[in-house]
Design a protein that fits this description.
about 750 residues, alpha/beta, Beta-Lactamase, Glucose Oxidase, domain 1, Enzyme I, Chain A, domain 2, 4 domains
Length: about 750
C-alpha cells in the first residue's frame, strides 16, 4: 500500500470520528483503535501535555488502568524525548535506546518495536502518538507518514476541545508584568529598543481533511504561482544594487521557490487526503525535523530559507497573508521570530525596524548578511523566547552583550537609555578621528586597517577612516552562493572592491572554505568528515587540490587589478612549498594574460597568513619569498593551545594575553626586524583595546580589525608611548606575573590609558 493510500484509509475513519458526537476522551479512544488496526500494531497510545507533564490519555494494547495515571516529564523516556526534541523515533528495539524507561503499570515489557511522532500545536510539541509491536522491526516510511498525518488531526482535535491549556502549550508564563532577561548569540552587534512585534502570527489551520483532493491541488498550484511572482519582484527591488552578495542570497532563495521536489512532496501529502494548508504544514514539520538532524550549519541555514518559504506559501493558500511587514510597524520595533528569511527582512520599514531577536539563527545565515548591511542588531538562539515576550512588550536589545530584556523596570530603562546616549556620544568622538592619522605619543605611525568580506562592507572604509583593507575574505562570495561563483562574477566583485577603495590598499585573501565553512556544491569533493574541521581539508589545502577553483580566482584577481597594484594573501600556509605551489598558479595565469596582451596589474605583492605555528619555524625560508605576513590570531591561538575555539567549554579557557601567545608573537616580530617584509596582525585580538596595547608592546605596527573597532583603536594608539609599553612588556615576558591581563590593565590605568 502506498503512503498516500495508507494515510487516506486512516484519514477517512478519522474524519468520521471528528464529525461524531463523541466526547473528547471517546474520540481519543477511537483514534488509537483506528491507527492500531490500520498499522496492524498491538499498541497505539496518545500522550498529551498537562500541567507540565506528559500524561497517557488513551491506549490500545497497554493496561487501561494506566490511562491518566502514567505521567512523565519532557525529556523523560522515549515519549518525553519525542516531545522535548519535537522529533520522530523509529526503533526496532526500544530497550536499546539510551532514553528508554520501563513503566511497569503499563504492561509494556513484552513489546520490542517502538515508533512515535510528536503532536505539534503552533510549532510546539503538546504530546506524542506512539505505536508498539511485539516483534523487533522498524516501521516503514508509509507507516511513519500515516502517524504524522494522524498527529496533525489530533492537533486539530486538541485545539477544538480544550484538552490542553493553550497558554501552557505555547510555553507562556503567566507573570507577564515582570521583567524577563534573555540570553543569546550576538549575530549582528548593536543596541536597540522598541516594542515587541511578532514577525508572523501563526496561521490557524481550521480543516485538515480534504473534501476534494483536486480542488486542494489547484489551490496549491495558484499559491505557488503567486509566491514565485512575489519572490521575483522582491529580487528586482532589493535595495543593495545589482551584482551584490545580497542579490546572490535572493537568487538562492528563489532557487528554493522553484524547487520541484518541494512542490511534489506537498502534492503527495494532498493525495493522502489532506487539505492544502495541512499538506504544507506536514511537509514543513518534516523539514523542521530534518533541520534538527543537520550538523552542517550552512545546510541548516538553507533549510531555514525553505522554512521561510513554507510560511509564505501557507499564508497565501490560507488567505491569512497579513504579516507584521505588510501591516506596517506602529513605531520603533524589535522584531520577534523563530527564524527569518532574507527576503522577509527586506520587507520591513528600515526607519522603524530597530532590532531582531530570533529563537534560532546562526552567524552564517543569509538573514544575518542582509541585517548587517541594514545595520540592524540581531540576537539569535534565544531559548524560550515565545514564553517570555508578548506582542507589544517594551524590549531592550543589547546585541553587544548577547542579552535582551522584556518589560524592563523604569530603572533598567533609564540605565539603558543612558548607556545608549553614551554609546552615541562615543561613536561621535570616534567619527571625529576619521581623518586623524593614528600616531603614538612618541610619533610612530601605526597602520589601522579593516577587515571586509562583502561589497557593502567597503562603504565603511572611508566612514571609519581606516588605512585600507588588510583582509578581504573572498570566501564570503562562495558561502552565500548556491553554486560555485563563475570567474566573471568574481572579477566583477574584486574590481568593484578596488574601485570603492580608491587609492587605499586592499589585501585579498584567497578562498578559505572547507572545514567549518562548508559549501554544499563542493561537499562531494571533501565528503569525508574531518574530526577536527579547523585543522582539516580547508583553505589553501582544498584550493590546491581543486586547482580549477584557485585558477579561476587567480585570473579574476589579476584581471580586476589590471593597471593597479594587487595584494594577494594565501591562508593556512604551513610550509614554504605550499606558498610556492599557490604562487605558481598565479604565475601561470599571468603568463596566459601576457601572451594575450591583456592588461596586467601594475605590481603584485604576495603574502601569507601565519596561522599554523610550523610556519614560524621556517621564517628564514619564507621571508625572501613574500612581501608581507599577517598573523591570524584566531586560528593561531587555537592551534597553539590545541583548543577548538568552537567548543564552548574552551572558549574562555585560554587567554590571548598569556605569556605563551605574546612570547610567540614577539619572536615573530624579532625574526622579521630589518627584513623587507611587512608584518601585521589580522583578527579579533587586534580590535580589543587591552589586547591591542599588548600587541604594540611586542612590536606589532599594523592591525587589521573590524570596521567598528577602527575608531576605538585609533583613540588608544594616540594615548600610548611605545618605549614605555615595550619596556614593560619585556619585563613581564621575562618574569610573567600571576595574571598578565591584570598587570597590563593596571599599568594602563596608572598611565591614564583607556583600555575599556
Amino acid at each position: 500500500m502506498s503512503a498516500a493510500a495508507a494515510a487516506r484509509q486512516i484519514l477517512t475513519h478519522l474524519h468520521e470520528v471528528m464529525a461524531s458526537r463523541l466526547h473528547a476522551q471517546g474520540k481519543l479512544d477511537r483514534v488509537v483503535e483506528i491507527v492500531g488496526e490500520a498499522l496492524d500494531s498491538e499498541v497505539c497510545s496518545i500522550y498529551l501535555l498537562r500541567e507540565g507533564m506528559l500524561e497517557l490519555f488513551a491506549t490500545r494494547g497497554l493496561k487501561q488502568e494506566a490511562v491518566h495515571v502514567t505521567r512523565m516529564a519532557l525529556g523523560e523516556g522515549l515519549t518525553g524525548t519525542i516531545a522535548q526534541n519535537v522529533e520522530t523515533l523509529n526503533l526496532a528495539e526500544a530497550k536499546a535506546h539510551p532514553d528508554f524507561q520501563y513503566r511497569p503499570e503499563t504492561g509494556e515489557e513484552k513489546f520490542h518495536s517502538f515508533a512515535g511522532v510528536p503532536i505539534v500545536y503552533r510549532e510546539r510539541a503538546v504530546g506524542a502518538l506512539n505505536v508498539q509491536h511485539l516483534d523487533p522491526r522498524r516501521y516503514e516510511d508509509v507507516e511513519i507518514e500515516a502517524l504524522q498525518t494522524t498527529a496533525m488531526v489530533l492537533s486539530e482535535l486538541i485545539a477544538n476541545t480544550g484538552l490542553i491549556d493553550e497558554e501552557e502549550a505555547l510555553g507562556l508564563t503567566r507573570a507577564s508584568t515582570e521583567p524577563a532577561k534573555m540570553e543569546g548569540l550576538p549575530l549582528v552587534k548593536g543596541l536597540a529598543s522598541g516594542v515587541a512585534v511578532y514577525h508572523q502570527p501563526r496561521v490557524t489551520i481550521d480543516q485538515v481533511v480534504a473534501e476534494d483532493v483536486e480542488v486542494e491541488r489547484q489551490r496549491v498550484y495558484r499559491a505557488f504561482d503567486r509566491m514565485r511572482d512575489q519572490i521575483d519582484t522582491m529580487a528586482q527591488q532589493a535595495e543593495f544594487g545589482a551584482g551584490g552578495e545580497h542579490e546572490e542570497v535572493l537568487q538562492t532563495y528563489k532557487m528554493f521557490a522553484y524547487d520541484e521536489g518541494w512542490s511534489r512532496r506537498i502534492n503527495e501529502a494532498i493525495d493522502s487526503g489532506l487539505t492544502a494548508e495541512a499538506a504544507i504544514e506536514r511537509v514543513q514539520q518534516r523539514t523542521r525535523m530534518r533541520m534538527r538532524e543537520i550538523d552542517d550549519p550552512l545546510l541548516a541555514d538553507r533549510m531555514h530559507d525553505l522554512e521561510d518559504l513554507s510560511n509564505r506559501l501557507l499564508r497565501i493558500v490560507s488567505g491569512q497573508i497579513g504579516t507584521a511587514a505588510s501591516k506596517g510597524l506602529p513605531r520603533d520595533t524589535i522584531l520577534i521570530a523563530k527564524n527569518l528569511g532574507p527576503a522577509e527582512l527586506l520587507e520591513y520599514d528600515r526607519r522603524k525596524l530597530k532590532g531582531v531577536i530570533l529563537e534560532e539563527g546562526s552567524l552564517t545565515a543569509h538573514v544575518v548578511i542582509v541585517a548587517r548591511a541594514m545595520a540592524v542588531p540581531v540576537l539569535g538562539r534565544v531559548r524560550g523566547l515565545r514564553g517570555m515576550v508578548r506582542e507589544g512588550d517594551e524590549v531592550l536589545l543589547d546585541a553587544d552583550a548577547g542579552t535582551a530584556t522584556a518589560r524592563p523596570a523604569q530603572t533598567m530603562l533609564q540605565a539603558f537609555e543612558a548607556r545608549f546616549a553614551q554609546t552615541k556620544k562615543r561613536l561621535a568622538s570616534y567619527a571625529e578621528l576619521r581623518d586623524v592619522e593614528p600616531f603614538t605619543r612618541d610619533g610612530t605611525r601605526i597602520q589601522v586597517m579593516m577587515n571586509a568580506g562583502l561589497r557593502d562592507d567597503i562603504s565603511s572604509l572611508n566612514l571609519v577612516g581606516a588605512d585600507g583593507i588588510g583582509l578581504f575574505r573572498t570566501e564570503f562570495q562562495f558561502l552565500v552562493s548556491a553554486t560555485l561563483p563563475q570567474r566573471e562574477r568574481q572579477t566583477r566583485l574584486y574590481r568593484d572592491v578596488m574601485d570603492a577603495a580608491g587609492s587605499k590598499p586592499v589585501v585579498f585573501r584567497t578562498v578559505d572554505i572547507g572545514g567549518d565553512k562548508a559549501v554544499p556544491y563542493l561537499a562531494s569533493e571533501y565528503a569525508e568528515q574531518d574530526e577536527n574541521p579547523a585543522m582539516g581539508w580547508r583553505a589553501l589545502r582544498l584550493a590546491m587540490e581543486r586547482k580549477g577553483l584557485l585558477k579561476a580566482q587567480a585570473r579574476a584577481l589579476l584581471e580586476a587589478a589590471g593597471g593597479r597594484p594587487l595584494n594577494v594573501m594565501f591562508p593556512m600556509v604551513a610550509e614554504p612549498w605550499e606558498f610556492d605551489a599557490a604562487k605558481a598558479v598565479f604565475d601561470e595565469q599571468l603568463d596566459y594574460m601576457r601572451d594575450r596582451k591583456k592588461m596586467l596589474p601594475e605590481t603584485i605583492r604576495y603574502g601569507v597568513m601565519l596561522e599554523v605555528p610550523a610556519l614560524a619555524e621556517v621564517l628564514d625560508l619564507m621571508i625572501p619569498r613574500i612581501s608581507f605576513m599577517s598573523i591570524g590570531t584566531n586560528d593561531l591561538t587555537q592551534f597553539l593551545f590545541a583548543a577548538d575555539r568552537a567548543n564552548p567549554k574552551l572558549a574562555e579557557r585560554y587567554d590571548w594575553l598569556s605569556p605563551a601567545i605574546l612570547r610567540f608573537l614577539r619572536r615573530l616580530v624579532r625574526g622579521t626586524q630589518g627584513q623587507p617584509i611587512d608584518l601585521g596582525v589580522c583578527g579579533e585580538m587586534g580590535g580589543r583595546r587591552l589586547e591591542a596595547l599588548a600587541l604594540l608592546g611586542v612590536g606589532i605596527r599594523r592591525l587589521s580589525i573590524t570596521p567598528s573597532s577602527v575608531g576605538p583603536i585609533k583613540e588608544l594608539v594616540r594615548q600610548v608611548d611605545l618605549a614605555e609599553i615595550e619596556a614593560a612588556m619585556d619585563e613581564w615576558l621575562v618574569r610573567p606575573p600571576g595574571c598578565l591581563r591584570e598587570a597590563i590593565a593596571d599599568w594602563a590605568q596608572a598611565k591614564g590609558i583607556d583600555t575599556q
